Automatic annotation (TrEMBL):
Record protein name field: Triosephosphate isomerase
One GO CC annotation: cytosol
Catalytic activity: D-glyceraldehyde 3-phosphate = dihydroxyacetone phosphate
A Gene Ontology biological process term: gluconeogenesis
Keyword Lipoprotein recorded: no
Residues at the active site: H110, E182
Binding locations of substrate: N18, W19, K20, G188, S228, G249, G250
Organism: Glutamicibacter soli
Length: 271
């Protein structure tokens, strides 16, 4: 992240936990409670770093009730949304429902959706449009697979995904946008792209956003890294200038571990 002269972050860091298809609604409430208590014990300042969880759809109502009832500062989102608003789309979830459930964010184009549900950049562009229609901030996920990385084409590939997915997004809409760079080969594998890899792609993404929407918006947009992030590697990744947060899978299912990722500032080595 980038720190200004007065010690403030130029862009508010975002520490996000994607639970994927884990945690039923009862387990989900327990996890959020435990996370909130742990962060309270750590005297976490939510203004300094935003904390978001992305539970399965079936957990969201419970998480909403808990956060409202206990006046929790953490925010939440969904892992996907339909490109449509309502109608005969069996099994799909409208952005309208997510808005009503108090979702701040929605993941769009996660690599697992691209892979298992054949989501193309075109589909993802229409899901982004749906997120904007319902005023839920999209977290657009991009990133290359192993073959592309080995061929050294990771920057070009990722920027193509980015540009095609953002095809219908206006500069005004882009004021509310988070991008997550998640190299597929580093997801759930224990392989972590090094801090320098995360920085390389985040800088390239920021450059592409500047070309598309102007420098001002590019400088305001938060860019996350995701792929085998743990408490032990989060701080080193977060130190990079263009990395403004992390999107955590497996390690977000453990409240202590995730809370320690949120405490990345305490692990920063100042040299
Ligand atoms: O896909 C991810 C987050 O969206 C990353 O998952 P892991 O942290 O389990 O590698």
């Amino acid at each position: 992240m980038t720190i200004s002269q007065n010690g403030a972050f130029v862009r508010q860091p975002l520490i996000a936990g994607n639970w994927k298809m884990n945690m039923d609604h009862v387990q989900g409430i327990t996890l959020v409670q435990k996370l909130a208590w742990t962060l309270k014990d750590h005297e976490h300042d939510y203004d300094r770093a935003e904390v978001a969880v992305f539970p399965p759809f079936t957990d969201i109502r419970g998480v909403q009730t808990l956060t409202l009832g206990d006046k929790l500062d953490l925010v939440y989102g969904a892992q996907d949304l339909s490109a449509h608003d309502s109608g005969a789309y069996t099994g799909e979830i409208s952005g309208q429902f997510l808005k009503k459930l108090g979702c701040t964010y929605v993941l769009v184009g996660h690599s697992e959706r691209r892979e298992y549900h054949n989501e193309t950049n075109e589909v993802i562009a229409s899901k982004l449009a749906a997120a904007y229609r319902h005023e839920v901030t999209p977290v657009l996920c991009v990133g290359e697979g192993l073959e592309v990385r080995k061929a050294g084409e990771h920057v070009a590939f990722t920027l193509e995904q980015l540009n095609e997915s953002l095809a219908g997004v206006s500069a005004e809409q882009a004021e509310n946008l988070v991008i997550a760079y998640e190299p597929v080969w580093a997801i759930g594998t224990g392989e972590v792209a090094g801090p320098a890899d995360a920085q390389e792609l985040c800088a390239a993404i920021r450059g592409a956003l500047a070309e598309r929407f102007g420098e001002d918006i590019a400088q305001k947009t938060r860019l996350l890294y995701g792929g085998s992030v743990k408490a032990s590697n989060a701080a080193a990744i977060m130190r990079e200038r263009d990395v403004d947060g992390v999107l955590v899978g497996g390690a977000s299912l453990d409240a202590e571990e995730f809370a320690n990722i949120v405490r990345f500032e305490h692990h920063l080595v100042t040299d």
